[in-house]
Amino acid sequence: MKKHISLTISTVLAAVVLLGASGISAVAESPQTVYPEQFEASAITDYAVNGDYFAFATAEKITVFGGEIPQTYDFSVEITALDSYNNGNNDSNNGFCYKTAGGVVYDMQGNSIDHEIKPTAFPVTPDGSGYSYTLSNGNIKIWDGTEYTIEGDFSNLKVFGNTVYAMNGNTLNKITPPQTAEPLGYEIADFSATSAIAIGNTVEALDSYNIEKPHFTALKSGEYLTEVHLDAKSFNKASVSPTDYFKVGRTVKVGEEAGFNAGMSAVVLCETGNAHIISLNGKQYIKLATAATARDFIEAEFSSAQINVPSDYIYSSPTVCDAAKLRAVSWGESVTVLGKLLKSTSPEIPCDFYKIALKDENGTEVTGYTPCSFVFEKKENNEEDKTDDPSPSNADSVKTVVLVLIVVVLVLVAVGYVTFVFTSDKKRKNK
Questions:
Q1: pTM of the model
Q2: Quick one: how far is CA 52 from the chain centroid?
Q3: Within a 10 A sphere around the Cβ of 294, how many other Cβ atoms?
Q4: Residue 79: is its pLDDT beyond 60?
Q5: How buried is 33 (Cβ within 10 angstroms: 0-12 exposed, 13-18 middle, 19+ buried)?
């Protein structure tokens, strides 16, 4: 019986140990950085049309399409209605107005204006069309003596410039009588998913990804980039946890935002989870990982060098930002130059960089990048560096010897004179 009890207790203890170990392993496992593979569309709450420009409201934002690049305005107040109005300047910035929950109407610069935004009164009869329109249970009824029906989930029917528009679900449609509804395809992405991107193993990846060779990637049309704040205040490498979230800024779509064109190349600072963190236009962004290309160094002019700035850092990538800081360096510190990366052939980098190696306080070699202006060639003091004078002369040496002899003679004469004066005085006193 005792053996049985003992065996049972051992079995239970073993199970507890295994469960505990499993639990510890699960807790210890770091979360992965996951960037959204796609973004859901934001719900469009209202719209307006002004010539070739289309404005859409989503909660507290208005996005205007029609120019080369969509413009987004964040007013940080609830927008209840949109409209176009004639202000003498029919463009995307000045041709729209919006109403807030307080009932005040503003232009796109945030100035209150005297304009009434009225709901559509049915039936609608655009000038010169000969058709009248109305909504019935989500369907559009069109009448010109004969009734036509466009079935769907239509709402918010409006007329702009004698053209009829209506929302069908979350998509704006242009209505052409007698029975055509053309989806216009404007969509506004919901970027709220970017507010909770785990840091994961980013710190380790930042310190190691580019040490062998620097990596670069080209932007693709239609992909999204989200700004991440990697300054020391927002991203302290010594204290951030894998479970922490990046502090993010706005999200942009390549090809639809100024300065973010398809084919542009950027430095890849690291790969973490399913994402790349890149350096572009002086800022850092996170995006879905795509193909990255390693680039070779050219041979530097010298190998033995020293740091010639009072205090700075070597970096884990060819860039100058807090997140890439690898180790502090100081004036006169000896380094070995391993290669060079030129801005003329790598326009993605802010300046020319050397790849260098140096020893830390424990004697361990540390490899990283530093701007070329921080490093100068170290001249070794040895006999091989001396150059013989092709026309040696001893004239200067002879002059030096003669001058030394004259000084010695003068000193001896002065000492003799002083001695004579003192001894002569004593003899007079004795007499």
A1: 0.70
A2: 33
A3: 11
A4: yes
A5: buried
